[in-house]
């Protein structure tokens, strides 16, 4: 299986090591030092933490193993009005990829790493050794969400344990260094993941991909120069934008496998159609 080979990359293996290390120290060092794993508070916290960490790991597997969405070789753009009255519209619909020499559906982009056109491409992510696109974007977003929760949780456990620990009598320096190192590591991880999560919350609320965000900056600059204003064509309403990514059923928003709401990824509702 070629998909399995995606795991054989240094960044992916690094993610596994960091996850494994964070899980191990949170449970067997910090919760153990704080209240003891056998206590009711200890076992409850380790149970919740294990559940969240498993969700995180599951999302990670999904992100790596799910194909982001490739353009079918039979794809031909659906040009409704073939009359030559709107040449600009037809030109836009007939975008071709130079490298794949196939038509590019709206929101699709060519990934230089995957050497393929990716549907609703967000970006190529080395940490999952895969592109983030139409079919694995929800899993990617939930991975950011659960990873932020897990690292914040771990942070709280480190602080709780450090506050309760009796540092005085022993006088050994090594546990202190270990605590500080882990604390700094988890804090930077939490800030990084939290920032990335916030960024993708912003993108979802505006129904944008990372690529489209940068395209929009250029497009609005060009529009301003000619006295116009730019509006992202796929921005419907905030709530509708959320449902297009996470699904119409609010109770399934946090479920990474619930992706039945996703259409083929070859066309997307634009604000012109809905209003
Ligand atoms: Zn291409
Ligand atoms: Zn890629």
What's the short version?
The protein is mainly alpha-helical and about 280 residues long. The protein has eight helices and four strands.
Name the features:
acyltransferase, 275 residues, 4 strands, binds zinc ion, two-stranded antiparallel sheet, two-stranded antiparallel ribbon, mainly alpha
Summarize the structure in words.
One of its GO terms (molecular function) is protein-cysteine S-palmitoyltransferase activity. One of its GO terms (cellular component) is endomembrane system. The chain crosses the membrane at residues 7-31, 43-65, 139-162, 177-205. The chain has 275 residues and is mainly alpha-helical. The chain has one domain. The protein is built from eight helices and four strands, in the order αααββββααααα. The protein has helices at 10-34, 40-65, 87-93, 137-164, 174-205, 210-225, 238-246, 271-274; strands spanning 109-111, 116-118, 123-125, 130-132. It binds zinc ion (2 copies).
Give the percentage of residues in beta strands.
under 5%
**Distance between termini?**
45 Å
Order of helices and strands: HHHEEEEHHHHH
- Please give the order of strands in the largest beta sheet: 1-2
Number of strands: 4
Q: Helicity level, as a percent range?
A: 40-55%
Uncertain segments are 81-89
Overall average pLDDT: 90
The largest β sheet comes out as:
2 strands, antiparallel
| Small molecules bound in the structure, each named once | zinc ion
By helix and strand content, what is the structural category?
A: mainly alpha
Broad shape: elongated
Count of folded domains: 1
